[in-house]
């Protein structure tokens, strides 16, 4: 990862990318970001290619890719493996859709539980608390 304009220290790189220094070091240990050569008696310098790489990693994380998946994507980034990258993207998309489905189910159950609380009268057990004690099956009242 050669950069002609290697002008940033690791602290400068962290500031430029809004990533902690320890995160950069962790990414280096994981092989997600190469460690530049240290000149004799000097400090390592980072250039724009490091900013680009960190942007790639952080964007991929925001899309839900794990660091292992990001490592796989980085190995495919030479432009000749678009089909392989597409397969990884398709798997991530399927995972996201499954999570959305599960969250929609959770939302529906919680909505019913909260509605029961709002309809709750008198000094009897709280319907939400009672449902949680009964488990998810108890929270899904077939009458609703």
Automatic annotation (TrEMBL):
CDD domains: HTH_MerR1. Gene3D superfamilies: 1.10.1660.10. Residues 7-76 form the HTH merR-type domain. Keywords: Activator, DNA-binding, Mercuric resistance, Mercury, Metal-binding, Repressor, Transcription, Transcription regulation. It comes from the Bacteria. SUPFAM superfamilies: Putative DNA-binding domain. Signal peptide: none annotated. InterPro entries: DNA-bd_dom_put_sf (IPR009061), MerR (IPR011794), MerR-type_HTH_dom (IPR000551), MerR_fam (IPR047057). The keyword Repressor applies. Coiled coil: none annotated. GO terms for molecular function: DNA binding; DNA-binding transcription factor activity; mercury ion binding. One of its GO terms (biological process) is response to mercury ion. NCBIfam families: MerR. This is Mercuric resistance operon regulatory protein. It comes from Methylophaga thiooxydans DMS010.
